Amino acid sequence: MHNEDLGFNSLAVHAGKKDDCMNSAVSPIYQTSTFSFDSADHGAKCFSGEDKGYIYTRIGNPTIGELEDAVAKLENGFGGIAVSSGMAAVNTVYLTYLGMGKHLVAHNSLYGPSRAIMESLYPRFGVESTFVDATNAENVEKAIRPETSLIYLETPANPTIGITDIEAIVAIARKHNIPVCVDNTFCSPYLQKPLDLGADIVLHSMTKFINGHADIVAGMLVTKTKEHYNKLRPVMVNMGFNMDPHQAWLTRRGLKTLGIRIDRAQENSIKVAAFLEQHPKVEWILYPGLASHPQYELGKRQMKGPGAMISFGLRGGFEAGKRMMDHVQLALLAVSLGGIETLIQHPASMTHSKLSKEAKDAAGITDGLVRLAVGIEDVDDIIADLNQALSHV
Ligand code: LCS
Fold it and tell me: What is residue 309's DSSP assignment?
């Protein structure tokens, strides 16, 4: 059967598999740093690109390649570039499109380090950046300068769950000939396909939903075109941001159950969000599945489902949130998300603590914001745990 005929879950199980695996149901791990050549001529041809043979694992490896092909297929992209972490993916994109005299326009709510390095690291190399509330696409257009060379979005955004209109921003970017990269970590290709909406590059922390078992740190880029792939890949190779084959094999295994894991975590999240929304100690809640979300209609249009990430604030602010976090028993008080277990954390003092106060205020990352990543446990147990933790507030 051709891959084109297969649905998402079938592709998640089968896509990328190579034929030369001794008929094993699961591909082996090519745990090797290097590959031998048949002859000196063959080696030279591999290096010139005339022969597609493998050379060295930092440049390419069959186990890593299987994962790259599988995620690229699920995102409807030209090709995938696997990297050691989500941050390696972010830096591969920044280093490829930004440099001396160049300018970035990005959404103001991003995973903390994706923004913090624009304040702490990239100015050293002459890069400037403007962060805007991209949930209003006009703000992106207003921030564009002649030297803007990248538009960078995260939707839904970490940790504010703001949703940006990918198609509207791509339309603006096209007018100015600027590439658009979308961090799709919170949705995964199961719920959202940014390349189909016109984005040029999609980025993942595969540490999250794609691997899904909280036992791997990994990243991925998928490009719409060969042109962008050919720009990004050498940066990954030369910076040494590559993945390890064992890491790739485990991530490929996690990917197989992506759809069913998200279905379950999302089903749980819808019930958890309904519970929190009616709880008297909860002051506000942001979840794309609730009609109270400011971009509820856009989310319904752009995403196949509301996902498994919830942010909320308690009456009593940070102190109240702290008491709740200190009393969870089933949920883990831990950063990260997209795994099988429910996690709760406080972005202002944890994942987003390196941002300046102004940056946090502008993005709406208040001291009272608590972030919940809902897992696949029995939903009654998750709700009972949150309920007993809230009784301590
Ligand atoms: N992009 C998003 C949206 C993320 O949430 C993260 C990590 C990254 C990129 C970076 O990926 P990593 O290098 O960690 O694989 N987000 C985390 C979080 O919210 N808590 O801990 C890590």
Answer: E
Shared domain check, 61 and 152: yes
Q: Is 126 left (phi over 0), alpha (psi -120 to 50) or beta?
A: left
Q: For residue 356, give every residue at least 6 positions away whose Cβ sits within 8 Å of its Cβ, in sequence order, or none.
A: 119
Q: Is residue 241 within 6 Å of ligand 1 at its C-beta?
A: no
Cβ-count burial of 301 within 10 angstroms (0-12 exposed, 13-18 middle, 19+ buried)?
exposed
The domain boundary residue, chosen from 207, 238, 255 = 255
For residue range 298-313, list pLDDT tens digits in order. 999 999 999 999 999 9
**Tens digit of pLDDT for each residue in 231-273?**
999 999 999 999 999 999 999 999 999 999 999 999 999 999 9
Helices (H), 31-111: 40-48, 62-74, 86-97
> Is there a catalytic annotation at residue 124?
no
Segments forming the whole domain that contains residue 119: 8-255
- Residue 2 within any structural domain of the chain: no
CATH code at 165? 3.40.640.10
Token pair belonging to 57: 């694992």
State which of 227, 255, 283 marks the end of a domain.
Answer: 255
Q: Is 92 in the pocket of ligand 1 (CB under 6 A)?
A: no
Tokens of 117: 């390095």
* DSSP 8-state symbol, 196: G
Residue nearest (by alpha carbon) to ligand 1 atom 4? 111
Known catalytic residue: 58?
A: yes
Domain count, the chain: 2
Residues 6+ apart with CB under 8 A from 378: none
Strand partners, 56: 34
Shared domain check, 227 and 376: no
Please answer whether residues 20 and 27 qualify as being in contact, where contact means their C-beta atoms are separated by less than 8 angstroms.
no
Asked if 111 is an active-site residue, the reply is: yes
Q: What is the pTM of this model?
A: 0.97
- Ligand 1 midpoint to CA 366 (Å): 19
Determine contact, residues 312/286, Cβ cutoff 8 Å: yes
**Both structure tokens of 79:** 């090709």
